[in-house]
Task: structure prediction
Amino acid sequence: MSLEVVPEELPVIGAQIDVTRASLTTVLGAAMPLTKPVPAGGDIVSLYVSGVMALFGEQFFPITTVPGVSQMEPGTAALVQSAAEYAAGDVSGGGQVTASGLAV
Result:
């Protein structure tokens, strides 16, 4: 099995990930209010059930960001850095690329 890397395509892939992240953030942001149900009535049971169900929505949509979406941005930066390291390795005739700052 072999792996072929085209360094010129890594920043393009990173840009596509950024577009996906922005789109996903927009969609999830629009869905967030739907996870906070309105009480069916003014009685204690309806108010309680509405409050409990809203807690589930808060677990899925944390206050700051949705888990996973926030991990896309560092991944994009890593692709750009990797592209530069591959290109520099090709110029110097080397085949070594660092992984997250550590020598492989």
In short: The domain at 9-85 is CATH 1.10.287 (Helix Hairpins). The chain is about 60% helix and 0% strand. The chain has a mean pLDDT of 78. The helical segments are 9-31, 44-60, 72-92.
